[in-house]
Amino acid sequence: MTPRARIGVGLVGFGTVGAGVVKIFQTNAALIRRRVGVPVELVRIADVDLKRDRGVEVPAGLLTNDYQAVLSDPAVDIVLELVGGYDIAKKVILGAIAKGKSVVTANKALLAAHGEEIYEAAVRARVDLDFEASVGGGIPVIRALTEGLAGNTILSIYGIINGTSNYILSRMTKEGHSFQDVLGEAQRAGYAEADPTFDVAGIDSAHKLAIMVSLAYGTPVNVKDVYTEGITRIAPLDISYAKEFGYTIKLLGIAKFTNGDIDARVHPTMIPATSPIAQVEGVYNAIQLVGDAVEDIVLYGRGAGSMPTGSAVVSDVIAIARNLLLGATGRVPPASFKQDERRPIRIRPMEQVRSLYYIRFMVLDRPGVLSQIAGVLGNHGISISSVIQQGRKEGQTVPVVIMTHTAGERNVQSALREIDGMPFISEPTTLIRVEGQDE
Question: Is this prediction's pTM over 0.85?
Answer without folding.
Answer: yes
